[in-house]
Specification:
heteropentamer; A mainly alpha (177); B mainly alpha (490); C mainly alpha (492); D mainly alpha (102); E mainly alpha (629); D: 102 residues; 75% helix; 0% strand; elongated; E: mainly alpha; 26 helices
Chain lengths: 177, 490, 492, 102, 629
């Protein structure tokens, strides 16, 4: 019974995910694309939940759908409306090749997984209730993946500096102007 | 001291080059370089008194230190009997070339003379190296100064000529690099004395082609005409006189010494190339429109002849080859320097604008005549001795080779006489004015020693021919038996 | 109470020192007065790299046998230490080159901070022990480089380079990431050696997922090493980025990418050696062919060098493909002179660029050798080193690499390498020709600044590079010993 | 509660990855290209989490979290670049940014 | 005597070096004296050697002296060895004696030429080379001398090097001789291969042991090739007439008295080899006969006085070949000696004529010079008579002894004997044609206006003195041997070359009778045609054309050898060298660059393309990975 509900939720989430993903690529207006991406991230969070990764799901919603996308929207608003037709421009073989390559890539991975997936790729061992809970995650972050945790901070800091360096051109310009 | 001689011969010019480069003032570069070159000659002569030509255990002045141990590469230098002669040729000709450059007064003297000294070191190193990788290093190192010397101080078409020259010769020597690596790894050591002979055809070809390009042998001489025409005379002298002998060294020391089996298998092929080259080069020289063209193609022919001697695989042939290598080195060096002198006076090298230079220019006439006559191997000249030995050596292997070689020699008479009479004889050509003076004392001082060497060798060619080692010395492969007179029936 | 693992600070010290220097630079950007900023930041940054050098050599000295540290996240071994030495050295040279660059005044501090951070990231990456640290380390210095490329925001070229690098780099790391995901999925492990064990344990060597994952990881690394056919961003980015940054990228990025590739492949995928050696060999051939042929027709020197760096990636991939101790040795040895001469070469280009105030082409390089004897001579040796002429470390590097291939029994690969070298001669010699051999009429393009500027740091950096290049030839024994013990850290 | 087999999740992941790649290859607006990169990373994340579920370890999830941070970092830098480009009065079109070529 | 031999050899060399190095510090005249003195020294030395050798018993007159090993390799070595034996002494005497006279003559003849020094240096060099040739103690050294005389002949023929014709003639002479050298060298290669040495003894020993074998025949042929080339016998005779471009004394010394006779010397010296290859020896005789006939015929139509003498030289050497080929070694050496005298005399007298006419050599412009130059006329006449073989002049004895031997040498010999007789007739004819054209009749207008009386200055004295001495020689030289009765020369040479034929007294008488008769007949015809004008020359156009074109040998060689060589060279240069061997490089280079351009076309600068490249490559790579497994 519960299984059925899971199925329904999964199907809805999955299709939302695929649809929004496709939408991001195909909208001509970045603004809509960004919105579509928010949807995509949300539906992904649902899938994470189904995979019993609560903390990740939460983080997904907060970090991504929250912070990152907001930043995106700000920038888009700042730059104003820049639309471009998805299929236009570039050498004529570009679009064709792009579709072909992307399709091939997906098909390949899917096929490979299908090959492998003959039964073995089930939900592995039974997992405890705490699986994916903030406590477990945090513990791992402090033990096994301490370094990763630290490095992440470094990367973020660097990125911040970069944002300042690249974005804060104003000073120089005003001096010139 | 005596064990250090090879090292000294290699590193004295190298140090000199560095000294000249780092020198603050350019004016003293020339004299300094000349001094070093002469010292080099002095050391070689000293070695001549010390060396034991008949030693059968390893090279003389043998010196070895590990370079890097992983692959058993070592700095191993020394002289076999025959390579010592080639080294002597190198130091003498280089000294003459440096002197010529100094007399002409090349611009940017520091760079120029530094490079010349560097070149000296590299060439001597080639002849001195007893380690395969070391040999390759010097073999390649020669290209560096040559590239610049031709490219900077060469003639109008020098840019194209240098590219052709470097790329072409490197094509050969890079193949050799592959061969060196495979050989060294398979035999576990890069040492030329210790490593065992190999039977791999491919490796042999790797080496042989490199040397065939360097020599050059027909049909690998595509770089030759331009390089010899565009480079300045003294560099051309070095090119044809000394650099090409590196190939002969390789043929004898490596192809013959390390690949007796394939050497036998490919004898006929290479002999064919050499003979064709001999005749072909002579024909080209016979029709060449300018002085340098004649000399250039004649040295193509001569290298073919020398190669015949090496591949005759008889002590006569090989001795003759070494003797002839020295002769040809001196001859073509002298001829190129004279060509330079002529071009300085007439601003052209094309034969139909020259002529009649003998009248009123006795020194030029005499020197050119003597050299040319020796070059066409008039009996009694050292060149005659060398060619006689070579052909006598090859005769028993196949009389056809000897006959072809003999025709080559008749052709040599034809083109050399053509050159002489076109420059010296008949009515003065349009480019020859009375302002074109006779050779200056300085020029004589540069050229005459070379000619003197030739005449001395003509008096006593045996000095070299009986001192290149025979089947007992390490020069020759252990396995290949070595008939004194091929096919001689008891 | 959570038991945090013991952290071997000493092992991490090289990157930590550089990171500390970066922090100080960052602060100095705000705290020091303008006139002091440039020398101070540069000095601190250089100090950081020197410290990195010192610590790395200490680690090398104190680490007889390899082992994993900090909960198996990173490994402490001499292999990494040597790689860190190379990174730090090139960072130091880069500082010297950058110093007199006409750079936007108001980001000096950040510039050096980012340079140091990038160095730290690379130093960290080479000792990565599992897929996560690998990915993070990669992103760490990549982000720095994205910014550094674009830091000359006044120049369109710089911006374009940054954006291109960012987009393509993002894609590359995404590929790498997905690959790691697949590998993780197949083996359930992130640690390199653990992956190998799992593969052996569950006999997964035939597992398609693992294979695809491996392929994707390989692609990601090949991308960073700018090996064909994942190299297409290289010329544009190298061309557009500020020249000192280009030099640093060319030297260090390639180094770490290749070192890491060798470590990952040899530690994590020994079971698949038969597969990935072939693949790497293929990449090597592709890079050699593409890089050299494209370089033949270049006129802009920076682009030319970019393509040449692609072909050199090919050479070093030969060493990786050899997959033997000799190969590992050859790779490390090759990197030492290579790093020095690529930075040196770009430094010379930078010097000429500042003289002329325009992009350096073969045309306007003419006469340079005679005008600036020291730089000219250095460039001469650099070109010889690239081309693998004797008396330069480049020759010995090629020699070792070919030997490695031959030892594996792949003489055909040697032939390919030799042929590539031959083609490469053409354009390396073209540079020398441009510098020295132009007819007198074309000589002496008057630099806009009149007499050439005295750039002490840059010159000394170039000379240092030249010394490394030539010294590596003569003093090969110690370097080979260094690399031998380093290579023994790998299970080859 | 099991729900669908993990293969399906992976299929979705693969699709996301591919569609993201398609976006990068297809779109000229740098903003949308950045978004597409995000999608690619998210596809990878989904794969990671799925596998971590499959193995019953949390490593994958940790990895995914780290990736999120990194993705954020990339976005920051990317947006900074885009703003800088905009400041230089250049059109926001990656095809127009092709002064370097050949 | 060994010392004497060395002095004899080295004195001229010393002079040559001294003159060369002395340069302008040496006055022209001094150079002449030096050269003459040195050659005279050689003559004295050889006389000393001669008398000292006479002291030895007949069988121990062979002495070898080696100074040092000249060439050696492996266990082959050749010493710088001198051989002193009757044959070499005989040649030394001729060479140095006649040489001394002619060099002395040159002091007068070359007086006033601005390059006297060069001339005398060359002359000394030549004498040295010739002495080396005849004194050499092994075959290789003989070849060395052989080549060096060729060289000096080249130098002297081309002495007037501003004259293209002279240069061309010199080249022609050298290259034809080079061909001869080559054949000799090949013969030596065979010897080396078989015996491992080039000493006379071992070679003769070996050829004696396997006589008639292919190898021996090859060796003999090679030697014959050298001899034929050097002695301007058919078919390599064409260079000699052109060689008259050189100064007249040169023609006298090199192209009459000494060098061109070296072939005969070789035939005699290497007699054992030739005897071991009888067919080749017969061939030599046959060639000699053919040459003497052909040369005699051509001489009939020549108008250049020196060329006439040159052709007569060819035909006389033909006699010598005939003799040597039939094994009458001593006789042909005898004729060699007498010929040296009277032919040198003729040339030098002709030189006087030419000198007096300011260098004019065309006989048609001469005539009636008897009145202007009576003494010269006398000398010339004596020489002519000797050449024709009129007793008791020298030519008579030597030529007839050869003919007698031919008569004695079987049917083949008798055929050649007939040819020889015909030659005798021709000799008389063309010789006296020359005499009458030059000296006979009334002075021609050209002679009248161009003749200048030689001043009785020192140079003139040198010239006339020499001519006088040679005149005496031409008269008496024959008296040292009188066939069948008094044969010191034959006995002297016997130990070296045992003659194969010994004519009987009757044969001697018959030969002499016929020869002299035909000679006189020839003279008579010449008198009738050119002096008394009672007979007129038959207008046989074809014959005349053939003779004037010297039987078209030059044209033949031009078409068969020279032109094809040039054509081949051109073809190779234009169709192989330039397009293929040189062009291929550029083609490869451009090809590589074109590919490079193609490759960089892909570098569109569009980031999307790069992304596409990555995605595509990943796909392929992964596919390959999965597929490989």
């Amino acid at each position: 019974m519960g299984n059925f509900v899971v199925w329904v939720v999964w199907v809805m989430a999955a299709f939302a995910c695929l649809g929004s993903g496709a939408a991001v690529v195909s909208f001509s207006n970045p603004y809509y694309s960004a919105l579509a991406l928010i949807g995509n991230l949300g539906s992904l969070a649902v899938l994470y939940l189904l995979l019993s990764a609560e903390f990740v799901a939460a983080a997904q919603v907060l970090v991504y759908a929250g912070a990152v996308m907001v930043m995106f929207l700000f920038v888009i608003a700042y730059l104003g409306r820049h639309a471009d037709a998805p299929w236009a421009g570039g050498p004529n073989w570009q679009a064709l090749g792009a579709v072909a390559a992307a399709g091939a890539l997906m098909v390949e991975i899917v096929v490979v997984i299908g090959l492998k997936a003959s039964g073995r790729l089930s939900h592995g061992p039974e997992i405890g209730a705490g699986f994916g809970s903030p406590y477990e995650i945090g513990k791992l972050f402090l033990t096994d993946h301490l370094l990763a945790f630290e490095i992440t901070s470094i990367v973020l800091l660097t990125a911040a500096v970069g944002g300042v360096v690249l974005g804060s051109h104003a000073r120089g310009e005003e001096e010139r102007a | 001291m005596s064990s250090w001689l090879a090292t000294i011969l290699v590193f004295l010019p190298l140090g000199g080059a560095l000294l000249v480069w780092l020198l603050p003032v350019g004016r003293v570069a020339g004299p300094l370089a000349l001094l070093i070159a002469l010292t080099e000659v002095g050391f070689w002569i000293n070695g001549l008194t010390l060396i034991d030509f008949d030693r059968t255990s390893g090279p003389s002045f043998d010196q070895q230190t590990t370079w890097f141990s992983d692959l058993n590469v070592s700095y191993h230098v020394g002289f076999s009997a025959f390579s010592f002669w080639l080294a002597g040729l190198a130091v003498v000709v280089m000294a003459a070339a440096i002197a010529y450059g100094f007399w002409v007064g090349r611009e940017r003297p520091r760079a120029y003379f530094g490079l010349m000294l560097f070149l000296t070191a590299a060439v001597v190193g080639v002849f001195a190296s007893e380690d395969l990788l070391l040999f390759y290093v010097f073999f390649e190192a020669m290209m560096i100064p040559l590239y610049v010397l031709i490219g900077v101080w060469g003639g109008p078409g020098r840019l194209g000529a240098t590219v052709k020259f470097v790329i072409y010769t490197m094509a050969g020597s890079l193949l050799m690099l592959a061969a060196v690596i495979v050989f060294g790894l398979s035999s576990g050591s890069f040492d030329l004395v210790d490593s065992n002979p190999s039977n791999s055809t491919w490796l042999f070809l790797g080496f042989a082609i490199a040397f065939a390009v360097k020599a050059p042998l027909f049909p690998f001489h595509g770089w030759l005409p331009d390089a010899y025409r565009e480079s300045s005379p003294e560099v051309a002298a070095v090119l044809s006189g000394v650099i090409s002998k590196a190939a002969i060294f390789g043929f004898i020391r490596i192809c013959l010494g390390k690949f007796p089996g394939p050497f036998d298998d490919f004898r006929n092929v290479i002999l064919a190339l050499a003979v064709v080259g001999l005749v072909y080069g002579s024909l080209m020289a016979f029709r060449a429109p300018d002085v340098r063209g004649v000399i250039a193609y004649s040295s193509l022919a001569q290298m073919g002849l020398i190669t015949i001697g090496v591949f005759s695989l008889t002590s006569m042939g090989v001795s003759g080859a070494v003797l002839q290598a020295v002769n040809h080195g001196l001859i073509s060096a002298t001829l190129f320097l004279l060509a330079g002198a002529i071009e300085r006076r007439t601003a052209t090298g094309s034969l139909n604008r020259l002529g009649g230079m003998a009248r009123g220019r006795p020194a030029l006439a005499t020197v050119l005549m003597v050299t040319g006559v020796i070059a066409l191997a008039v009996p009694g000249s050292s060149a005659f001795a060398g060619e006689f030995l070579i052909l006598a050596g090859i005769f028993g292997f196949g009389w056809g080779w000897a006959v072809a070689g003999a025709t080559g020699i008749v052709l040599a008479a034809m083109y050399m006489l053509r050159l002489i009479s076109a420059v010296l004889h008949k009515e003065p050509g349009p480019a020859v004015s009375d302002a074109a003076l006779d050779l200056r004392p300085a020029e004589l001082g540069i050229v005459v020693p070379l000619v003197a060497c030739l005449l001395a060798l003509s008096m006593w060619p045996a000095a070299i021919s009986e001192r290149v080692g025979d089947e007992n010395t390490p020069l020759f492969p252990q396995k290949a038996e070595f008939p004194a007179f091929p096919g001689s029936v008891p | 109470m959570i038991q945090t693992p013991s952290v071997d600070w000493f092992a991490l010290s090289p990157s930590l020192v550089a990171l500390g220097a970066a922090a100080i630079c960052l602060l100095s950007a705000v705290l020091t007065p303008r006139w002091l900023l440039r020398p101070f930041a540069a000095f601190v940054c250089a100090l950081g790299f020197v410290g990195g050098l010192v610590m790395a050599s200490l680690v090398y000295w104190k680490t007889p046998e390899a082992h994993l540290i900090v909960a198996d996240a990173v490994s402490r071994d001499r292999f990494a230490a040597v790689a860190q030495l190379i990174v730090m050295g090139s960072g130091l040279l880069a500082v010297g080159v950058s110093y007199s660059a006409r750079m936007r005044q108001d980001h000096i501090g950040e510039y050096y901070a980012l340079l140091a951070t990038a160095g730290a990231g690379m130093a960290f990456l080479v000792q990565a022990g599992n897929l996560m640290t690998l990915f993070l380390g990669l992103e760490w210095f990549s982000v720095c480089l994205y910014i550094l490329c674009a830091i000359e925001t006044d120049l369109v070229g710089s911006l374009e380079a940054g954006l291109k690098y960012l987009i393509i780099g993002g894609m590359g790391s995404a590929v790498l990431l997905f690959g790691s995901a697949l590998v993780y999925g197949s083996t359930g492990e992130l640690g390199f050696s653990a992956i190998a064990d799992a593969t052996r344990l569950h006999d997964l060597s035939g597992d398609p997922i693992l294979l695809v994952g491996l392929a994707m990881i390989l692609a990601g690394l090949a991308f960073k090493a700018s090996a064909a056919p994942f190299h297409m961003w290289t010329p544009d980015v190298y061309d557009g980025a500020p020249t000192p940054v280009t030099g640093f990228m060319a030297a260090a990025t390639k180094a770490v990418a290749l070192v890491l590739a060798l470590r990952l492949l040899s530690v994590a995928f020994p079971e698949k050696e038969d597969v990935w050696t072939i693949a790497v060999a293929f990449l090597a051939c592709a890079s050699l062919a593409w890089g050299n042929l494209a370089a033949l027709v270049q006129t802009r020197v920076k682009r030319l060098l970019a393509y040449s760096s692609i072909s050199h990636a090919g050479f070093m991939l030969i060493a990786v493909a050899a997959a033997n101790q000799l190969g590992a040795r050859a790779l490390l040895y090759y990197l030492i002179p290579y790093a020095a001469i690529s930075i040196g070469a770009f430094a010379v280009v930078a010097a000429r660029e500042r003289e002329l105030g325009e992009t350096v082409t073969l045309e306007n390089l003419s006469g340079f050798g005679w005008e600036r004897p020291v730089l000219g001579a250095a460039m001469f040796t650099f070109m010889l080193g690239f081309a693998g002429f004797p008396l330069t470390g480049g020759f010995m590097g090629k020699f070792l690499i070919f030997s490695a291939a031959s030892e594996r029994g792949w003489n055909w690969l040697v032939i390919v390498g030799v042929a590539a070298t031959l083609v490469s001669l053409y354009y390396y010699l073209a540079v020398i020709r441009a510098m020295y051999m132009r007819p007198a009429a074309e000589l002496g393009l008057a630099p806009i600044g009149g007499s050439p500027p005295r750039e002490v740091l840059l010159t000394s950096a170039v000379v240092a590079a030249m010394i490394v290049n030539v010294g590596a030839f003569f003093a090969i024994q110690p370097l080979v010993d260094l690399t031998r013990t380093a290579a023994q850290a790998l299970p080859l | 509660m099991k729900g669908p087999d993990l293969t399906w999740y992976l299929a979705v992941a693969a699709f996301l990855f591919a569609i993201g790649a398609l976006g990068v290859m297809l779109r000229r607006s740098p903003l949308i290209v950045l978004l597409s990169l995000e999608i690619m990373l998210n596809g990878a994340n989904l794969a990671l989490i799925t596998f971590s579920r499959h193995h019953g370890q949390l490593d994958g999830q940790i990895f995914a979290l780290a990736v999120m941070a990194v993705a954020a970092a990339e976005v920051v830098v990317g947006l900074g670049l885009i703003v800088a480009v905009h400041r230089r009065k250049l059109e926001l079109d990656v095809d127009k940014l092709s002064t370097l070529r050949g | 005597m060994i010392a004497a031999a060395w002095v004899c050899l080295l004195a001229p060399l010393g002079a040559a070096l001294a003159i060369t190095l002395g340069g302008t510090r040496l006055s022209r005249r001094a150079a002449g004296y030096l050269a003459t003195a040195s050659v005279a020294t050689s003559f004295v030395a050889s006389t000393v050697a001669f008398f000292s050798i006479l002291g030895d018993p007949a069988e121990e007159r062979t002495h070898l002296s080696t100074s040092w090993t000249w060439l050696s390799a492996g266990n082959f070595d050749v010493g710088l060895t001198l051989l002193v034996d009757p044959l070499s002494i005989f040649m030394m005497l001729i060479v140095s004696g006649v040489g001394a006279l002619i060099v002395g003559y040159s002091i007068g003849y070359m007086h006033g030429d601005e390059e006297e020094r060069r001339y005398f240096a060359y002359m000394a060099l030549f004498v040295f080379s010739m002495l080396l040739l005849v004194q050499s103690g092994n075959l290789l050294l003989l070849l060395v001398g052989w080549g060096l005389v060729g060289l000096s002949s080249y130098l002297l023929i081309g002495f007037h090097h501003e004259r293209p014709s002279a240069v061309a003639a010199a080249k022609k002479a050298f290259i034809m001789n080079a061909f001869g050298d080559a054949t000799m060298a090949l013969a030596f290669f065979v010897l080396i291969q078989r015996t491992g040495s080039l000493s006379f003894d071992s070679s003769f020993q070996w050829s004696g042991d396997n006589a008639g074998s292919w190898a021996v025949n090859l060796v003999a042929l090679g030697l014959l090739g050298g001899a034929v080339a050097k002695s301007a016998q058919l078919p390599l005779q064409t260079w000699l007439p052109d060689a008259m471009e050189g100064p007249t004394p040169v023609s006298a010394l090199i192209h009459a008295a000494t060098m061109v006779t070296a072939g005969v010397y070789l035939l005699v010296r290497a007699a054992p080899v030739f005897e071991a290859a009888p067919h080749v020896q017969d061939l030599a005789a046959g060639l000699g006969a053919a040459t003497l006939l052909v040369a005699g015929l051509i001489a009939l139509v020549q108008v250049d006085i020196k060329r006439v003498i040159a052709y007569s030289t060819m035909s006389q050497i033909g006699y010598m070949f005939l003799g040597a080929g039939l094994g009458a070694y001593a006789n042909s050496m005898f004729h060699l000696m007498t010929h040296a005298f009277f032919k040198a005399l003729l040339f030098l007298a002709a030189g006087l004529v030419i000198h007096a006419l300011l260098g004019e050599q065309d006989m048609r412009k001469m005539g009636g010079l008897r009145q202007f130059l009576p003494r010269t006329y006398a000398a010339f006449l004596i020489g002519a008579l000797a050449l024709t073989g009129i007793p008791p002049l020298s030519g008579f004895f030597s030529k007839d002894s050869i003919l007698a031997s031919a008569l004695a040498a079987g049917t083949y010999g008798q055929v050649l004997f007939a040819v020889g007789l015909a030659g005798a007739f021709l000799t008389g004819l063309y010789t006296f044609r020359m005499v009458f054209l030059v000296f006979g009749g009334e002075p021609s207008p050209y002679a009248r206006e161009h003749f200048h009386k030689p001043d009785r200055s020192e140079p003139w004295l040198w010239m006339s003195l020499t001519v006088g001495v040679l005149t005496i020689g031409a008269v008496v030289a024959g008296w040292i041997q009188f066939a069948g009765i008094w044969t010191p020369l034959s006995d002297f040479l016997r130990p070296v070359a045992e003659p194969l034929v010994e004519p009987s007294g009757a044969q001697d008488l018959l030969a002499s009778f016929l020869a002299v008769g035909l000679g006189i007949a020839g003279v008579a015809v010449a008198w009738a045609v050119y002096s008394a004008r009672t007979l007129t020359v038959p207008q046989a156009r074809v014959v005349r054309a053939v003779l004037e074109h010297k039987f078209y040998f030059d044209e033949l060689y031009d078409w068969v050898f020279y032109r094809p060589t040039v054509l081949l060279a051109r073809t190779l240069r234009d169709y192989v060298e330039r397009p293929v061997l040189l062009g291929s490089i550029d083609a490869i280079a451009t090809g590589a660059r074109r590919i490079g351009n193609e490759v960089t076309e892909l570098q569109t600068g569009l980031v999307r393309t790069y992304a596409l490249a990555i995605a595509g490559s990943v796909t392929v790579l992964a596919l390959v990975f999965v597929w490989v497994k």
